[in-house]
Amino acid sequence: MSHSLTKHRKTLDYPSISKQLRLVYIVFAMGFGSLALINYLNSYYQENLDKQLENVQAKRVLGSEVINHISQLERIYYRITTQINPLARKLSQDEAFEHVAKIYQLLDVFEKGGDFQQTLILNLPEHDNVTKTWHYEPIQTQTFDVLKIGLLPKLKTVEEKFRELDRQMAVADDLYQQKSPILADHMSKVQSIIKNTLPLFIRLLEETNRVQFEQRQNQQALTEQVLTQKRYFEWGSYSATLFLFILTILAVRVISRHITEMAVDLNDKKNQALEATKSKSVFLANMSHEIRTPLNAITGFLGLLKQEETNPEKIKYLTTIEESSHSLVGIINDILDFSKIESNKLEIDKIDFNPHTAFNSVADLFRARCLEKKLKLNVTIAKDIPDSLHSDPLRIKQVLTNLLSNAVKFTQSHHSIYLDIDYEHEKKQLVFSVKDEGIGITPEQKKKIFQPFAQAENDTTRKFGGTGLGLTISRMLVELLDGELSVESELGAGSQFKFRIPASIGKTVSKQKSIDSVQKSQQRHGKLLLVEDNKTNQLLMSAILKKQGIDFDLAEDGLQAIKAVNRQTYDLVLMDENMPNMSGSEATQKIREMEAQTKSRRLPIVALTANAMKDDRERFLAVGMDDYLNKPLNLSELHRILDSYL
Length: 646
Hints:
The chain has helices spanning 3-10, 14-82, 86-112, 141-178, 183-308, 312-336, 338-343, 355-372, 393-410, 443-446, 458-464, 470-480, 515-521, 535-548, 558-567, 584-598, 616-622, 635-645; strands at 114-124, 127-136, 351-353, 376-381, 389-391, 416-424, 429-436, 484-490, 494-502, 504-505, 527-531, 551-555, 572-575, 605-609, 627-630. By secondary structure, the chain is an alpha/beta fold. The chain folds into 3 domains: 15-254, CATH 1.20.1330; 344-505, Histidine kinase-like ATPase, C-terminal domain (Heat Shock Protein 90); 517-645, 3-Layer(aba) Sandwich (Rossmann fold), CATH 3.40.50.2300. The strands form 4 sheets. A 5-stranded mixed sheet has the order 4-6-7-9-8, covered by helices on one side. A hairpin with a 3-residue loop joins strand 8 and strand 9 (494-502). Helix 6 (312-336) packs across helix 8 (355-372), helix 9 packs antiparallel against helix 12 and helix 15 runs parallel beside helix 16. The protein is elongated and about 140 Å long. It starts with a helix and ends with a helix.
């Protein structure tokens, strides 16, 4: 980039560029609008010209049909003269009069316009003839007058000749039956009638052919005229298009320099944003891994403690902590999943769940927090709420947790918080209300509390803490669940947040078997290799595997894992990803290469990692792993893997 361009770009007048861009848009709009108008007029005009040609052709076909019917009349007349059977003559005469009637109809179309049919005789198997419908609009009345004057009197004369021939043939039949001697004289008279009638057909054809010849000449002249007009209009269209194109090029060239400079500036900003996005993505991935690693130990050891504990009160506490840990994991999954946050899309997983169990666990969590702050938590969960509902309990509990956290945060000691949960059976909706006796907010502050990173006052963050994302995330989750969130508040008198979530009645949620019973019901055999570098997770997984009675070896990085696989035969490998010396993905690829070289059996390798960003599962499967386990560890998923391979 030149120095002058860089210097000028620093002082870009973006409002001026915006005006010039609008000018370009206007020029393009006018240009394309004009082109569209020209094309429309061109199409409309050419369509009219084509209709004129088609109408002239229809007129020629109309004349051809008249000629065809006249020829049929002549053929029938000859046939009648040779028919002895009176009934056959009657049928032929009726057929002749039908052709006469069709000629009258065609002449009527010639005068007034309308539809008529053309029949083409093919004499093909399965296709004797083809009928096509034409439409004709009158063009020249003079041509019709000539045709009318020449044809109508002769047609009437032909009709009389048919009737006279029929009468004379009937007399001949009678004389033949009587064997009369005057039969020969009568037949001479009949021959004279036939001889005098035949010139009528010739004159009818001459009249029609003369009109057809004139029409053919008119059609040729009109065709040449139409083609000439089309060429003129096309050249005019091309000229107008070229003019508009040159005008547009000139308009674009006037401001091209400013647009180029703006594009360069925007490209620099885009590259900076991409770099920032990449850095943020790496940071979030590392942060996700570092948070999940200790969480894996917390949730894992909680599960082990819960298995050994027999005191109901302690089991209740452990269950509450465990539920809270899982809720924390779910929230971290959403907050740290960069792709979901950037696209403003969170996955909704609707399942059947027990609302009493789910919401009581949230209430139990906040009872302890309220007790520490000397607050009274009043929880009312309607008894008629069904035992099973269909929605996303994790998202609902996340919203409920956010609202209760705010209520505890902004309510002073020795005051109360009210949580009311009800179910409207007619509307099939869960209704939540979180009311506090806290600081409250003003009507002006209500307008911005759902905005990201916004709180009621500037000193709220300094006094109460928080990022200001809780209510924004809550509103987004409620809307994703097809619900609505509202707030009522008065400064100094507290706030009340209400939200409704559609939730249909689900199937009865069956109680899961305890971990001990699952363990006892499965008999597993085989040798397992655990590849894990974190000491805490080594301790946790060792405790879990020993409790399962599984024989296993431990490797602390990918290099040790490869050596162990070369030295020992294993039935399953649980492979971590982020490890020193060699990652889990690299170790998996090396193992698959060795299997291909030695043509040995495929060793099942399952990822057991805190890498839980979007597309991580697909990435691990692509390098050769067979399955994927996420940290914090889900014991049910671990049992599924163990049952599948051991």
